[in-house]
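Hello forum,

I keep getting stuck at the same step: I have a sequence, I want structure tokens, and every attempt I make locally crashes halfway through. Rather than fight my setup again tonight, could one of you with a working pipeline run this one for me? It's a single chain of 382 residues.
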Amino acid sequence: MTPERKESVKSFKSLKFGVLALVGACAVPLSLALPDAARATPPAAHVAVPQSAHVAVPQSSTGVKGADPSVIKVGTTYIAVKSAQGGIIVRQSSTLSGVASATAKKVWSDTAGRGEVWAPEIVVDGGRYYIYFTAGTGAAHRMYVISSASADSGYGAAVKLALPDDKWAIDGNLFTFNGQRWFVWSGWAGDTNVEQNLYLARMSSPTTPTGARFIISQPRESWERVVGNPYINEAPAAIKDPNGQLHIVYSANGSWSDQYCMADLRLRAGGDPTYVWDWYKSNGCLFGSHAATMMSGWDPTLYVNGPGSHSFVLPNGDINSSPPSGNRFPTMFHAVPKGTAYSWSNRVWYTGTAVWWGSTTYTRANVPGATSNTGYGLKFFE
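Reply #2:
Ran it on my machine without issues. Output:
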């Protein structure tokens, strides 16, 4: 969630938290318990985790003020997009840390007066650049896309994505899994701000959704309901683990609080991405600054508060290239340095490292299907 969301959040925070959103005719409860016997274990023996990954290293601030980093690597160039100046800017650098000092080029302006421009995400598909972003005010926020043959110029007019049901939508991004393009985003079930859920829809092209939307997560766990009204699941980012299983890593708890954190959804092996019960949720935050909300075996941050709205820095933004180098790979996330008052205006982009963590069990209760699922999880380091 970007700093420009302040006025919208003021308005939606005033809404009373009513009945939970319905999926079809029934609510989707996610009551996930974590028995001691099912706690996450250290990496499996076949997973090569560098010794340095086990020790937190000093935080690495890029110096870029703001939220919602999106960074990809094309060849030897890092490309970052950001909402700024009433539109979208692009920076290019030969190093990830050099993004901050790179020249910012404005590639799109909100000349139509759509309103708040939030959380642009850049990917490459078929050799062409696509930037997805949210624009609008209040309940009118919707997803848009611009495209170009060049990363930092030549983008055409914004096209509204015809997402199924046409409801409030933010933080959307495109990925391809098992040969199928998908779009994942955070949105409302209806026309009022009860809670923010995560949805998937198929895409027949980078700009054309097809079929229905499918809910894959709701903020129903105690650790993702510490700060709310509304309660949120947002900023989803797809990644594929060494076993080929799909993960959606997202942010939970209000972004206006240092309780903001990152958690994981893992699709079971051979699972259907459109079937909510084929997804298993981590039993707590995997990257956060409060021990009480962390999954057992995961430690809170040492140097920053409220990490979230991250980007996996992948070649072309393509999850099929992940992990790009061994068992660990770079990330970019926003957070506030410890010792600084937590506010949207104090958020900064940070570089970090993600490590695949083997033999990680996620458990759940009172839902269809198996109560536990073991596979790769993720650990994040500052």
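Residues 2-57 have pLDDT under 50 and may be disordered. If your local run keeps crashing, start a new thread with the error log.
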